[in-house]
Write a structure and sequence with these properties.
The chain has 417 residues and is α/β, with parallel strands linked by helices. Helices cover 44% and strands 14% of the residues. The protein has 16 helices and 13 strands. The strands form 3 sheets. It has a 7-stranded mixed beta sheet with strand order 2-8-7-6-5-3-4, with helices on both faces. A 4-stranded antiparallel beta sheet has the order 9-10-13-12. It starts with a helix and ends with a helix. The model has no long low-confidence stretch (mean pLDDT 96). The structure holds pyridoxal-5'-phosphate (PLP). The site of pyridoxal-5'-phosphate has 12 residues, from helix 8.
Amino acid sequence: MDKRTFLRTLGVATLGTMVRDDLWARFTGLSPERLAEDEKFWQTIRRQYQLTPAYANLENGYYAMQSQPVLEAFIRHVREINVEASRYLRTRQFDDNRAVRVRLAALAGCSPDELIITRNTTESLDTVIAGFDWKPGDEAVMAEQDYGAMLDMFTLQARRYGMVNRVVSLPLHPQSDDEIVRLYESAITPRTRLLMVCQLVNITGQILPVAKVAEMAHRHGVQVMVDGAHAFGQLEFTIPSLGGDYYGASLHKWPGAPLGAGLLYVRQDRIRPLWPIYSDTSMADDDIRKLNHTGTQPVHTVLGINDAIDYHQGIGIQRKEARLRYLQRYWTTKVRAIPKIVINTPEDPARSCAIANVGVQGMKPADLATTLFDKYQIWTVAIDTANVHGARITPHLFTSTAELDAFVRALKDIAAA
Ligand SMILES: Cc1ncc(COP(=O)(O)O)c(C=O)c1O
């Protein structure tokens, strides 16, 4: 990328020349890991987000807000489409959708014919779960730390078709990849057809060895569906490199797209056997678009994905991942050894990135989150399920170390009380 594109994409073109030169030098001269520690550079990125002065937002896992350049472009799309209205829908929407799919597929490292734009991970993965022709006694494997919507969808299939769900429980601090692979393998039987695995567990931030789990499952003839809700746009990888058969992600999380955008990847040879939830007889059985007939679409959101990709690529996935991991480790290393504070996220840097979970012994997660907000003006979310009891802490690119210092002070205060 050249300097002009960098400045335009990140919306910093209007800053003074000195600042621009300085920024460009940092951006091009420092490794992602060194840049991650450079508060001055990230302060500039912070100014690209409109933040409330009322509280520090450390709950960016549900929805990671759009930067102002992306938001402004989105608003323009809303206005433009509202002018052309049905003419846009009848003439241009399908070509534009295809163009965004092509860009997304390039980002994901797959063919555009293996990817569709959905509204979110839930729609993507539930389309796969409900698309299987389950027979009584068929089995699926998943973890109790998986996302509730998918667990519910499997439960529904069990009620409807008599299939059986086998649920493992992930350790919070695994000693090796092999421990995780063996755990999933222990739940596989000759009746297992599908295994769901999270690339990055949302309640703890733990990164799982998905490629190794997929390789093991395939050895047993089991198909693999990867929940990439939090990984896509946060970690550097390509979808096919994980070896899964199906992959779902939300683009309104780490890629920074407008709300209500997701993707579904289905490996080419897995498309034909999947039953669509919404019928579209105009599509061939092996055309992935057969899974995408959900009626009139928020097409401005689809167009907004383009601008989000510009912004995402403007910063670069390596810099993003390095900064997010730095922020998480910035605060977790300061509190991990403090009495009564329990970190529910692995210490190994390769096993986590932005997200971590912290509990305080003797305190309910809901009380911890409420205290953090009411007393310290820090917004988080309480997690109290499976073996995870604490507040989930999710910084964003705009999070400053000063905010994390305030959070650490609050935690120490609460633990000492
Ligand atoms: C691991 C995981 N899977 C799936 C989802 C569902 O995402 P969405 O609500 O965007 O469909 C989430 C949401 O936070 C998640 O964390």
